[in-house]
Aminotransferase class I/II-fold pyridoxal phosphate-dependent enzyme
Amino acid sequence: MTAQRDYADLVQRGLSLDLTRGKPSPRQLDLSNDLIKLPTSYRAADGTDGRNYGNLQGLAELRELFAPLVQVPAGQLVVGGNSSLAMMHDTVVHALLTPVPGAARRWVEEPKITFLCPVPGYDRHFTICERFGITMVPVPMNAGGPDMDVVERLVAQDANVKGMWCVPKYSNPSGVTYSDETVRRLAAMTTAAPDFRIFWDNAYAVHHLTDTPAELADLLALSAERGNADRVFVYASTSKVTLAGSGVSFFGSSPANVAWFLHNTSKQSIGPDKINQLRHVEFLRDAAGVGAHMRRHAELIGPKFELVDKVLTERLGGLATWTTPKGGYFVSLEVPHAAEVVAKAKEAGIALTPAGATHPYGQDPDDRTIRIAPTYPDLDELEQAISGLAVCARLVAAEHA
Ligand code: PMP
């Protein structure tokens, strides 16, 4: 049979390809090489010496640069180290150990804590919950974001529901951007827990692949308008703007939450790396500078997303469905018996994110979702990997026919 023969040929080729993680390619990192020579001055705009301790909140000029991009007033933005994931992790730890504004007690004293997890979602959010014994409840994603009927019901009926993970723009992995209606409902919904928080991980805020960027409504402002000012924790970073290992990250929230956050982080650190912050201000300059830089990324990775779509259309049309994202870092492939497809690919030397990773506890009840991360390999390797993946999917389909 052709499917078996194609698979045997694939294995024969002894490939070693990796589509697992959404990493920028070396050419993308090259776009930010000038950062390494900066800053030209270690003086911040307010005259302070960036080399020294201090300024826990981060440089005002960097906060002002990013404020409009992440939809948080500069005064309510905190600059962190290179990882926004670390800020998310630490926010959960802070909430466990120090009551968030509005909480009756520390989360660690709660009999049970539940977070809502739109699926498919980002595995590292789920890992944070697993680490701290937080129960995860999956919520299906629709074209405009999480199913809000389900979300509204769950947050209204259960005071244990303390949190919800959201990747609101070019979501990981579905590419979905939350609709205005979804954002409005998140801002306005009634929650049984007074200390409920939305972890608004806007990791792909400026990561457009087209000339018509997705627009995201301003959850922080809308929540404040609806009397729920403290509901939202916003996160973002330059991991996929400048250097994934040496960028800057952001936390933004209401004034009360920011005071709570800084109170807690003041026990952790005497101040962040302001030289890196200065470097980013000099390099990116302003919102237009970020836009121009992101267009250069899109020129490099846009063709990779087009290639994935082309190969899947040619090789898997009719057997699978997949997303054609307008931004972000991932394609979400829906194919029957996903776990078997991933296992066959592994045997053929093509590493994919484990099937199920897009769901809490690694359990995709439909065994359908495979996350494809096309940015790191070059075009030739990507073509081989996606064609190989299609061979595996065809083999598995033939075996179940
Ligand atoms: N959030 C999402 C949704 C991501 O996809 C990623 C990177 N894969 C991160 C956070 C990690 O961000 P950082 O590098 O700032 O820790």
Notes: The radius of gyration is 22 Å. The mean pLDDT is 97. DSSP finds 13 helices and 13 strands in the chain. The longest strand covers residues 135-142.
